[in-house]
Amino acid sequence: MNTRRLAGITIALVLAAWICGTAAAQEMTINEISDVSAGELLTISGTTNIAAGDRLLVTVAAIGFEPTNASAPGGVEGTSGTVIIQEGNATANTWSFEVDTTGFEPGEYLVAVEWVEGEATTSTTFNVTEAGPAAPTATVTTPAATATTPPAEEPSPTAAGPAIPLAVILAAIAGGYLKKR
Questions:
Q1: Number of domains within the chain
Q2: The domain that contains 77 carries what CATH number?
Q3: Is 122 helix (H, G, I), strand (E, B) or coil?
Q4: How far apart, in whole angstroms, are the C-alpha atoms of residue 124 and residue 17?
Q5: 119 vs 83: CA distance, rounded Å
Q6: Which of 23, 38, 168, 172 could bond 131 through an S-S bridge, CB–CB 3.0 to 4.6 Å?
Q7: Are strands 121-129 and 107-115 parallel, antiparallel or unpaired?
Q8: Whole-structure pTM value
């Protein structure tokens, strides 16, 4: 009787470990962000294996500390907002967030993306440079160029961490306990 009970518990724990070990982790990526001049419109975008329709919180914040003039008005320190994940291709969904950098002080900024309904996060940095002098406007007619966008990197599902070793340890403990009884 004890042998059957032990075998049943062991099988249940091994199955639980297998299920936990093969579950795909929720992943997000942020596409590379080039330096941007203050005052420019910036599109931050990326891919994810999280379901379309879920929401992401995108936060853009200045990082680092630099001396400032206390009598001068402060600049914008960042922005945040939520975006809804859009249906992508068979392996990855997409998201994007528009940022108006008007008022951003030159420096390094952190972009943090968090899944509102879960625990997946990712981050990256980019630089804001001083706005250049306004260029004189001249009317020049040139043929429209066709922009090609390279395919975004697609996240690959990974195993869910230490679930297998934990389950094996628990199975060994349970087996030793039942064997002593």
A1: 1
A2: 2.60.40.10
A3: strand
A4: 33
A5: 16
A6: 38
A7: antiparallel
A8: 0.58
